[in-house]
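tool_call: predict_structure(chain=1)
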Amino acid sequence: MNGSEATAPGPSTRLRLTNLATELQWQELLRTLPVAVYMTDAAGWITFFNEAAITVWGSRPTIGEARFNAAHKLLSPDGNPISHDEAPTARALRERRSIAGEAIIVERPDGSTVHVIAYPTPLFNAAGALSGAVNIMIDVTERHASEQAAMRLAAIVESSDDAILSKDLDGIIRSWNAAAERLFGYSAEEVIGRPLTLLVPKDRRDEEIGFLARIRAGERTDHFETLRRRKDGSLVEVSWSVSPLKDSGGKIIGASTIIRDITEQRRAQERQELLLHEMSHRVKNLFALSSAIVSLSGRSGGSAQELITAVQSRLRALSRAHELTLTDLTRDRLPTPTTVQALVQTIVSPFEDSAGARISLIGPEVPVSGNAITPLALTFHELATNAAKYGALSTCDGKIEISLDMDESTVRLSWIERGGPELSPSSRTDGFGTRLIDGTVKAQLKGAVERQWPREGLVMTLTFPIAELNPGESAA
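tool_result:
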């Protein structure tokens, strides 16, 4: 062999060259992957990384200077710091086993974070000795954000005071929160998979058909007030809002429904309307009563000064009587305990003549206290007002007899008018004042009202439980 002839490489050299070529091919392949990949030697020092790994770390490390992971900081999923020698790659090398799918958070130098799932695997040479590790990091930041948003939404739905449910396009219930269970009495297990018409009264089934038609057309329904049926069969007034649900491709797949119990809202609205009617009624009555007081005072004759004094005295008495009926409106404090007799005398005193012979009151003293005083005063005020406008107190010779009777549990008050104009029952029972008396006695005092219309005038009997007039006390 002369010196110009090339020497052929030996078998071991050829093997090393083949291995190097293979490693370079693998590295070139790994560089092009969209998934973050890096490799270490047996001691954990990083020997290779691809561009996707740089994106995850937020920096380009120097080969041989970063160990186990080139992240600025590592955090556990709950935000606690993880040292690099406790990172998944370090444990895979130490324990000589693959670690499949461990979630960690990579904090970049700029403070931003990336959520990744790590898959470190130890590498061994032909002799079985540990030669290094390869780690694949899958960026799941967007998925994590979506999961967190879904969890927050689920928490909001579950903790909402409004009933929230979802249904498919066939009207089948697919989700049901705790507020829905409280409102309707059904557990999620009882209703999921059943049609929403379970909650709809039979005479309102067309509403649900209309909702589904609008959902298929992509339309919302906001704050539709209606009635729905609970598990126990009772009806509840609700505000019903329905919105389309879409999948990731924008296709409508169902509807979300938010249901709010508006029972108290309706009651408050009714109370407000009643209050407005009552205030209007009171204002009209005050004008009518003022006129009646002037006429009543004028019948007694005397000088102009005596007339002025009589009118002023009666108007002051009317003012005191009127104040008794305003406590419910001001709600400053409960009225001072008193008796039924004292209430009646205060209310009717503006209409009494100088001799005190027009209105008589007999019977035992009946205590009244607490929240019963205002509705009772309002009832007597309405009776006296009606008597002055239409009944016995509207004439010169009319009289009123008031009598009280009681037993162990009940108080009975009779209001008897005599000498007034002849009236038909309808003329004294069609107005707001009559409805006010009935509502006050029956609803607030749990009592009863009975009216009779003999030729002499109105006879009204009011019956009250003693416990309602004087809570905590019983009859002697």
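agent: The CA atoms of residues 392 and 420 lie 4 Å apart. Proceeding to next step.
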